[in-house]
Amino acid sequence: MSVVVTAFLRRIVLIACAALSTQVSANADFPVRPVKLVVPYAAGGPTDRIARVIADGLRDELGQPIVVDNRGGAGGMMGSEAVANAAPDGYTVGIATVSTLTVNPLFNPRAVAINRQLMPLIQLLDVPGVISVHPSMQVKDFAGFVAALKRSPDTYSAAVAGAGTLSHLLIEAMTHALHVKMLTVPYQGQASAVGEALSGVVQIMPDQLPTALAHIRSGKLIPVVVGGDSRLPELPGVPTFKELGFADLNDLAKSWFGLVVPAGTPAIVAERLRAAARKAVQRPDTSARLYAMGARVVTGQGPSFAAVVDAQLKRNQAIVQRSHIRLE
Fold first, then answer.
1. For 161-214, how does the pLDDT look when each residue is reduced to its tens digit (9 = 90+)?
2. Using one digit for the tens of pLDDT, what is the confidence trace for 18-57?
3. What is the side-by-side order of every strand in the sheet holding 255-262?
4. Residue 130: which H helix or E strand, with range?
5. Is the pTM higher than 0.90?
6. Contacts of 220 (CB under 8 A, 6+ apart)
7. C-beta separation of 274 from 306 below 8 A
8. H or E element: which one contains 67?
9. Could you give the domains of the chain?
């Protein structure tokens, strides 16, 4: 090898090492500019309101502005795709929901492709779910609810936010686990489903705690079971699915929120974001605001977020296959 070639190769190696050193240093100093938080739903909705509280906490922990970017559309896929296509440098982070990561991929190949380009970063919040019934069903508790369903198969109907939604999967899973028969009625969104349940057109309403509570307190709906880590302070007399022996239904009845970043985000950057997000939601002021919205901060060192997503995808896939759920 000639002296000229050897010198050229040495120069290439030195340039590469310098570039790598610069990149490592940049990652270690992360963040040095504003971070974008992509919300895959429209502004003003429940996911957006929760995301903005998380953004405030992240701003304080990271020491940089957090720019909330609403990218609604296609059931959350447009926002998720925007994160997946962003540079993997930590400056674009996405809000992930149980629907975007574990329900959409069951029905849409595009969602499968998007999720392959995302790294589940951290699960932050749980939102308890409530199964309520219309007073016309004439039941007061879970035992009476199940007895009514068994006494009159296919007589009572459950309102769900749409075909193939989380609430749809929950009702189908309940039908299987409880050995009962009830009709599933998909509506165009949760608001329409709730309206029909309040009027008594349908008798069974799966919902999240924040929206269910007002109707329960007014007496328009009667809670029979909840999905949560423990009984809810707001509904202390209502048991959880878990304590009744239905742990899988308990997990399915809860919604959750987390963060995702583009696949390939450097480990040092991902860990910085993960640590900051964990501290952000655990701040007393932030956690209090989230609790007021019905969201509970996820604590403890359970399975990794990626493992949670994988397990719930498999569980939901089994429900879809067993129930023969199809989207028209």
1. 999 999 999 999 999 999 999 999 999 989 999 999 999 999 999 999 999 999
2. 544 444 555 889 999 999 999 999 999 899 999 999 999 9
3. 66-70, 35-39, 92-97, 255-262, 118-127, 296-297
4. strand 129-133
5. no
6. 134, 135, 198
7. no
8. strand 66-70
9. 34-127+254-323 (3.40.190.150), 129-252 (3.40.190.10)
